[in-house]
Amino acid sequence: MGGLPRFDVPGIDDFTRPYWDAAAGGVLLIRRCRAAGCGKAHHYPREFCPRCWSEEVVWEETSGLAGLYTWSVVQVNDLPPFGARVPYTAAVVDLDEGPRMMTEVIDCPASDLRIGMRLQVAYRTDPEGVVPAVPVFRPAAGAG
Ligand SMILES: [Zn+2]
Question: What is the pTM of this model?
Fold first, then answer.
């Protein structure tokens, strides 16, 4: 695997470093606009608010809780490193703080997935990865 490019995570730069550092510590960050009349949160992290283009955007810790919006069970993916771990559940979740996020659902059979089901963030750690911990989601404790 060593020399193969990876397509699952972006590289870390000065802007996204706080996000990945937080993820390594078990905290999912979003960005929230502080401009008057906006206040919109977004994900993935951007330097400008995607709603009003303000630069008054700050990092904010999330609860790590979300609802499942939609998903697709991926059976075939030739791009490394996905090929080694099919099938997996690619998903879009609605964070409780508002932003919609593309991610992956783990520890849940596809037959148990339901729209709106409660999820909580977990982390796939990869010591050899571009980033040390990638946020994924699993069914929330006590949900059912
Ligand atoms: Zn804004």
Answer: 0.85
